[in-house]
Amino acid sequence: MVDLAVDIGGLRLANPVMPASGTFSDGLARVIDFNRLGAFVIKTVTRELRAGNPTPRVAETAGGMLNSIGIPSKGIDYFFDETLPFYKRFKPPLVVSISAPTADGFASLATELGVSGVAAIEANISCPNLEEDGRAFAMTPHATASVVARLRAATKLPLWVKLTPNTGDIADVARAAEANGADAVVVANTILAMSIDVATFRPRLGSVTGGLSGPAVKPVILRQVYQCARAVKIDIVGCGGIATGADAVEYMLAGASAVQIGTATFIHPTALIRVIDEIEEFCNHRGFSRISALTGALMRAGVDETDLEWRQEAGE
Amino acid sequence: MVDLAVDIGGLRLANPVMPASGTFSDGLARVIDFNRLGAFVIKTVTRELRAGNPTPRVAETAGGMLNSIGIPSKGIDYFFDETLPFYKRFKPPLVVSISAPTADGFASLATELGVSGVAAIEANISCPNLEEDGRAFAMTPHATASVVARLRAATKLPLWVKLTPNTGDIADVARAAEANGADAVVVANTILAMSIDVATFRPRLGSVTGGLSGPAVKPVILRQVYQCARAVKIDIVGCGGIATGADAVEYMLAGASAVQIGTATFIHPTALIRVIDEIEEFCNHRGFSRISALTGALMRAGVDETDLEWRQEAGE
Amino acid sequence: MMDSLYPVREGFSVAEQSAVVIANTAVNPEYRHLVVTAEPPATAALAGQFFHLLCPSSPDGNPFLRRPMSVYAVDAMRGRVEFLYKLMGAGTRGLAMLEPGDRLNMLGPLGKGFALDPAWKHIIVLGRGVGLATLAPLALMAERASVRVTAILSARRPDLVMSVDLFRARGAEVIVVNDADHSSEVGNVERLLRDLVARGRADAFFTCGSNRLLLLLQRLGNEHGIPGQVALEQQMACALGMCFCCVRDFHAPNGGVEHRRVCWEGPVFGLQEPLSW
Amino acid sequence: MMDSLYPVREGFSVAEQSAVVIANTAVNPEYRHLVVTAEPPATAALAGQFFHLLCPSSPDGNPFLRRPMSVYAVDAMRGRVEFLYKLMGAGTRGLAMLEPGDRLNMLGPLGKGFALDPAWKHIIVLGRGVGLATLAPLALMAERASVRVTAILSARRPDLVMSVDLFRARGAEVIVVNDADHSSEVGNVERLLRDLVARGRADAFFTCGSNRLLLLLQRLGNEHGIPGQVALEQQMACALGMCFCCVRDFHAPNGGVEHRRVCWEGPVFGLQEPLSW
Ligand SMILES: Cc1cc2nc3c(=O)[nH]c(=O)nc-3n(C[C@H](O)[C@H](O)[C@H](O)COP(=O)(O)OP(=O)(O)OC[C@H]3O[C@@H](n4cnc5c(N)ncnc54)[C@H](O)[C@@H]3O)c2cc1C
Ligand SMILES: Cc1cc2nc3c(=O)[nH]c(=O)nc-3n(C[C@H](O)[C@H](O)[C@H](O)COP(=O)(O)OP(=O)(O)OC[C@H]3O[C@@H](n4cnc5c(N)ncnc54)[C@H](O)[C@@H]3O)c2cc1C
Ligand SMILES: Cc1cc2nc3c(=O)[nH]c(=O)nc-3n(C[C@H](O)[C@H](O)[C@H](O)COP(=O)(O)O)c2cc1C
Ligand SMILES: Cc1cc2nc3c(=O)[nH]c(=O)nc-3n(C[C@H](O)[C@H](O)[C@H](O)COP(=O)(O)O)c2cc1C
Ligand code: FES
Ligand code: FES
Q1: Does residue C86 line the site of ligand 1, with CB under 6 A?
Q2: pLDDT, chain C, mean
Q3: Which of A3, B65, C260, D96 is a good FRET partner for D250, with 20 to 30 A between their CA atoms?
Q4: Are residues D103 and D169 both part of a single domain?
Q5: Residue C51 maps to which CATH number?
């Protein structure tokens, strides 16, 4: 028996596997048993009604996909009236992803969500900060610090902060989140990207650029998890291109305490369950009694040692 | 007959297709006709002898590869004694990629390379800047400005500046290069990434992290080319995941005037030649008499127009 | 974000299954017919529902996302599901490579299908191109409900018209129109429709595959108070209502325009609801 | 960066070819034998050279990079090239899926092969595991040069020893050692070698596949002034000397340590040159 439980910024999860925001909804209950998930993470909620971006909103790329959904939202009332009661019927804790155009907006949403049934806040700070130049909060340590400080003051709930991979300073941004009271960082959102249809000379996405996700981004986000793990002590939730138990283990070795799965669910709706089964199997096979022992267990041997090791393996 | 010639920052190329630095050497002459290339771009040269990084130096990922070669270099004397005479035997112009740990180092190398047979300098400023915090010059507009200014003062050769995709400010970095005298920007180098072997718990690269290249990065670098094209007037050389003529056309539509091909040559050593043939075919087929007409020809229609267009196509 | 109508069930109504290909043959230069084995819940698929197919790689590319395909026919007794698909890009060209005995990973059944009002005696099915695949199972559904069908099948050329025999076998009256002889022009189709309306053969309209034809039916439906249903298409990622990739514009109850998900609220919608096909 | 020895030629000595698979069969639980059609320049491949194979996708994964494989045999007359490969990861498991008639994209011939000094009368070939594939074509090469071969073939178990018949057919004396009965231990192999040296059967050593055996031969070679050659392996991307992925450590002429590219300066090197296998 492997103990799959993990503690993420004060929230206990039965296992470290959960959906990524925006890639999950009640529809998946037609295919998998929701009670097996480590947590629910729902599509980012905003206070106001939002329509989202023009279509086409999706395009496929080598080993991944682009999306430009934006954040269509039925608003906070719909969340309280419909979404919250629905998820209350299940055992896993509910993590509510929120977004707002200002630090104040984030703070007031977080306060309002301090109700029974909401287990944690995931602040999606990859959205444009209307008070600064319109760049995403998570692009700079400075903007991250200010929005996280406001959020911290506004809620006692475990506070997860979801970072953008588009910054050149992700470790500094993670440090700013930690210093201002975040309980965990989620690394990361999608990578800004685009694709053009050479038949029509037009962008494949209605909003020209969009977010890249799926296996293609895994090596990049894994590196960012590794950088953040060396920069902060708070928990890291890894998210980017995870499709198998081995991928999840790779993220944990790099320093993640839990993982989120997005795009893989679109290809195999049972991906979340399969990853849970596969990491359990991995632990059994390798003699780990607690999954949490994998976090940060990467072996960084001296250069020559690594080299030799590979040679030995290759040797026969 | 399609006119494939392009002008990149003052240097005339017979066609817009050239190898990416570090993915090309004389060995390829065993497979393809070097005289068909738009230009030669050689592996980054440094003044001093360098060994490069520990092995393993390569790993494969979904739709791409990681490398951690570093910049092994036989030094500048070897360049003058062996490399330069070799390439002088062929028609395409020779673009020499250079790197140094300081702005001074870049400048003195550039000056020294002002000899017959060197057609342009490509400054690979994705290397650590030892005078600042060791971050790559190309990570910030500030460091880019200072190194490009020094380079500009040091050479009359066409000056191409190769950017890193790891910054959150690539358009600002391109602006800094332009403002300080760069004739073109090459967008971009590899994306910092990593991979872990879950069997051994060790990084797959001897130096832990390395650069991601190949089809997986194409949507990300294409977006950066598009951002740079809207930020600067100087020419842009697109580089990232190009494997086919359609990929090259996609980069040109986004704003590139020429393209570099790296990883694709490892999979198909004839990739450079095939891309030249395919873009010529594309122009013929679509009625373009000059390839340069493709540069920036992306159609950015109003949102609804795009939507409608797609619907019509999908309609039957 | 969530559809509160959806009940939490004991069993699962959608499944990822590894079907075995029984046949995969060309029906004309552009379309192919695919027959695969299926088990429940796949065999519970209704007319208008679809499956999300994991298409194999081919020299035309590696399809990363699944591809939505309407159910063309279901035979629950023999455990079979059929598709009729048009060769387009990497996905459908990958499908074309499948040979009998190969495996096909399919997810479904998905979405909301067609519904027949017991009060209807005569319906009109108006389809074009790929839309014919989606509309085809209506023939059997109507026969079983003792509803008479007039099918107007439109295509670019006569040799590209499909499902004529299928509709006739189920007792439908079939009218074929095509671009080659201009019979498919909106004006002519409108004449045919007005004639059928006048003869009391149009208790409801069903359509798929053409924006022009949808707009025509919306106009006639409005004019004569005739209800109807339309199956829409849109690019999809999840096909389970999760990603909001597949939205289209609809008239909102309050008079404005709102997005609905083709995979979840549809693909079958009330005739007057969508702004366009 | 560039090898100034390399002459610019009229024709091209390396080509990407689409070979047709003739056979692909298991020789034991771990190794398979692949025979494909080949044209020039592939059929000009020499012992010790290799091809870079574009391996098909399989359920084990999509190999992105090519995989290097030594030439196991070449038949220029019949236009065939053979490989002997061990099942490892995605690449070799992809190769295992190939069936007669399938296509295999191969690039080659690549690298620098073995060379026989006309002065040598007796050579010793000492190989282990995968190394036996690389060394095998030496048997024919030596026979043609009228050089006698003693082959010491090492493996984990007796059933995993390969190429015994191949070497015997070419007139070689074959000694098989294995881990199961401890005969493959360095001490025992050293005894065998010292005996051969004493009997004048060791004008040169050839080896591949084991670091321990390389170090042993380096020691004996040094002690007795016996030259030799070793074929190395290293992960590769380009296999054409362009990327510097495939370097290993070598004793530099000036006494230090330097990197050389296995694909370009090798894979065959002088016995005393590399620091390790
Ligand atoms: C509910 C539904 C039912 C459908 N039923 C059928 C059917 O029975 N027979 C049939 O031939 N086709 C049907 N289609 C259309 C079919 O899904 C597309 O033709 C197919 O996805 C094209 O994929 P491709 O890779 O061959 O083409 P590409 O053009 O290369 O596809 C590129 C991307 O666009 C998407 N795409 C392209 N065209 C469409 C489209 N019309 N609708 C949705 N996504 C599209 C693809 O899924 C893919 O993600 C249906 C679509 C939907 C939404
Ligand atoms: C010059 C040369 C000749 C070779 N000849 C043979 C031969 O005749 N028969 C044979 O069975 N094997 C041979 N090998 C080893 C063979 O290339 C590897 O076993 C094979 O690449 C493994 O690929 P994989 O995807 O199955 O395994 P994986 O372990 O999944 O491969 C992962 C990556 O590591 C590389 N890799 C793994 N092992 C080696 C290795 N030993 N050498 C180089 N790269 C490696 C692969 O190419 C791939 O890029 C040779 C290697 C070299 C360099
Ligand atoms: C269709 C789609 C919609 C998304 N919507 C959101 C969102 O609303 N909020 C958010 O924080 N991330 C959103 N994301 C990002 C994912 O949560 C996740 O960070 C990203 O997709 C990387 O993980 P993956 O490779 O496993 O998909 C979305 C991703 C996709 C593909
Ligand atoms: C093995 C390897 C070595 C490289 N070495 C260099 C280098 O020395 N200098 C440089 O500017 N870029 C170097 N690059 C980056 C490439 O020039 C190119 O920017 C990158 O690979 C993206 O293009 P691609 O996807 O076509 O490979 C190297 C890339 C690879 C794969
Ligand atoms: S395809 Fe995901 S919501 Fe419809
Ligand atoms: S594999 Fe590229 S230099 Fe050897």
Answers
A1: yes
A2: 92
A3: B65
A4: no
A5: 2.40.30.10
Final residue of a structural domain among D110, D132, D162: D110
In chain B, % of residues over pLDDT 70: 95
The two structure tokens encoding residue A131 = 């008070």
Q: Of C110, C130, C155, which residue is a domain's last?
A: C110
Ligand 6 contact, D88 CB (< 6 A): no
Q: C248 to chain A: which residues are within 8 Å by CB?
A: 55
Which residue of A17, A23, A109 sits with most ligand 3 atoms within 8 Å of its CB, as the best mutation to test the pocket? A23
Q: What is the structure's pLDDT at D163? A: 87
Ordered structural domains, chain B, with CATH: 6-313 (3.20.20.70)
Pocket test for ligand 4, best of B28, B41, B98, B213 (most atoms within 8 A of CB): B213
* Residues of A forming the active site: 127
Nearest to B316 among C130, C235, C276 (CB): C130
Mutate to test the interface with B, among D64, D233, D248 (most CBs of B within 10 A): D64
Q: Are residues C89 and C224 in the same domain?
A: no
What's the D231 CA to ligand 2 centre distance in angstroms? 13
State whether B55 and D247 contact (CB < 8 Å): yes
Same domain for D103 and D27? yes
State the closest ligand 1 atom to the C-alpha of B315, by its place in the atom list counted from 1. 41
B2 to chain A, closest Cα gap in Å: 18
For residue D78, the enclosing domain spans 2-110
Q: How far apart are CA D214 and CA D207, in angstroms?
A: 7
Co-location of D217 and D133 in the same domain: yes
Let me know whether C152 and C102 are in one domain: no
Q: Which atom of ligand 5 is nearest to the CA of C263?
A: 4
Of C9, C54, C64, the CB nearest to A65: C64
* Residue B300: band (very low, low, confident or very high) from pLDDT cuts 50, 70, 90: confident
Give the best residue of D30, D211, D216, D257 to mutate against chain A (max A CB count within 10 A). Answer: D211
CATH code of residue D180: 3.40.50.80
What are B229-242's pLDDT values in tens digits? 999 999 999 999 99
Q: Do A310 and B249 touch (CB under 8 A)?
A: no
Interface confidence (ipTM) of the complex: 0.94
Quote the pLDDT of residue A305.
Answer: 36
pTM for this predicted structure: 0.94
| Domain total in chain D | 2
Mean pLDDT across chain A, nearest whole number?
A: 93
Task: Please tell me the distance from the alpha carbon of residue A95 to that of residue A81, in angstroms, as a whole number.
Answer: 17
Q: Are residues C99 and C128 in the same domain?
A: no
| The pLDDT of residue A301 | 57
**What pLDDT shows up at residue C188?**
94
- Asked if residue D163 and residue D218 are part of one domain, the reply reads yes
Q: What is the Å distance from ligand 4's center to B189 Cα?
A: 6
Instruction: Judge whether residue B134 has pLDDT over 50.
Output: yes
With helix as H, strand as E and coil as C, how does chain D read? Answer: CCCCCCCCCCCCCCEEEEEEEEEEEECCCCEEEEEEECCCCHHHCCCCCEEEEECCCECCECCCCCEEEECCEEECCCCEEEEEEECCCHHHHHHCCCCCCCEEEEEEEECECCCCCCCCCEEEEEEECCHHHHHCHHHHHHHHCCCEEEEEEEECCHHHCCCHHHHHHCCCEEEEEECCCCCCCHHHHHHHHHHHHHCCCCCEEEEECCHHHHHHHHHHHHHHCCCEEEECCCCCCCCCCCCCCCEEEEECCCCCEEEEECCCCCEEEECCCECCC
Does ligand 3 come within 6 angstroms of the Cβ of A44?
A: yes
Q: pLDDT tens digits, residue range C40-78?
A: 999 999 999 999 999 998 888 899 999 999 999 999 999
Distance separating alpha carbons of residues D73 and D75, to the nearest angstrom: 7
Q: Which of A87-96, A151-160, B35-44, C150-159 bottoms out in mean pLDDT, i.e. has the lowest? A: C150-159
- Look at residue D164 and tell me if it is in a domain: yes
In contact, B131 and B100? CB cutoff 8 Å: no
